[in-house]
Amino acid sequence: MSFVLKAKGERTYISVQDFTVTLRWRSAVDLDLVAFYRRKDGAEGGVFSTHYLGGDHGALGRFPFMELSGDALESDGRQASEEALRVARLDEVAQLYILALNQTAARETDPRGEEGAARFGDCDLSVEVKTGRGEAFEVPLGRAEERGVVALVCRIDNTNAITGPQLIREGRVMTLDAFYAEVPGARALRVGQKLILRAKGSSAPLARPRADMPVHARLTWTAPVDLDLHCFYVRRGGLGGGLLRRLFGLGGGALHRVYFGERGSLREEPFICLDQDAGVGDRGGANEENIELARTAHLDAVLFAAHIFNKPDSCFCDYDGAVAVRCGDQEVEVPLRAPARGAWALIALVDCRGETLRVVSVDEVQRDRPSLSQVRALTSGLRVT
Predict the structure, then answer these.
(1) 135, 159, 193 — which closes off a domain?
(2) Whole-model pTM?
(3) What's the rounded Cα separation, in Å, for the pair 323 and 307?
(4) Strands 330-335 vs 194-196: parallel, antiparallel or unpaired
(5) What is the CATH number of the domain that holds 374?
(6) What's the burial of 310, exposed, middle or buried (CB within 10 Å: 0-12/13-18/19+)?
């Protein structure tokens, strides 16, 4: 049974320094558990999702001795979504701030800082702090009517060496300006750089600060399965050009790929390269494979897909996987959500034909390797800009 901190400013002592902080909510919004700290030597930092540029989940075996579980999907309103932060020790931390960032509202916030329409009071949001001894403390946000992007739910004060850490209920909804001004280390989190395409067929532009700016794609998953990131690409002119050009192989009308068996090169054709083969032997954890495109001017389109080793009837939506495509300071993520079964997950398409790249959520699962005709079909309705 949990002890509930009902009033703002209410506090209680935590008898040990190892504990787990769990954020729960029941609303169709994208909330992120984030934590920021001020060290006893005055240094500041934070732990937040790697879906944000510069994000770091932290680590239990080295400073900051805390680690974030991951980035949960939106709640369906019936079953609660949750994210957790495990804290191993607080010896070097003076203040720890526990916050919920409403990424859905942040995406609706205009450049002048005027907030999106969502209210935290509609999210049924709470934080549970559970110690290694089994003590549990609940910190509800309550029916907050303020509009904002960030909720400072609670804070842990570890400045008293005699009494030990105190858990304090804050219960404050903050604008981005207030968040950056009042929370130590908060400016490391660039809120506007996270964009997730959750709907199949949705798309987003990916601006290039320079024409020669490289593009990076990252496949991540945590389930104990062996996924392989494949980059299928069509050279410039390969998506069109008429029947004769395709029959005689002119205009690059073929579907090529970079994968663990042909890792490519950044210095010569195809100017695409895979870094490693992760998850071999069905290893779970923070698996990651990366592909870099040194240039895109010679390409019409790129399709990022995942293939699973020796499991042809797999359900990819169970693997907590996603592909994030980044160029410069902008990143677009496409999660694997399709419930169909197969050996191939077609995740994200990048249309390279215009001055601005466009990332499209494909989110399809099938038994066979993707074909050139599929890539043509996926790009046929896209507007080139």
Answers:
(1) 193
(2) 0.63
(3) 13
(4) parallel
(5) 2.60.60.30
(6) exposed
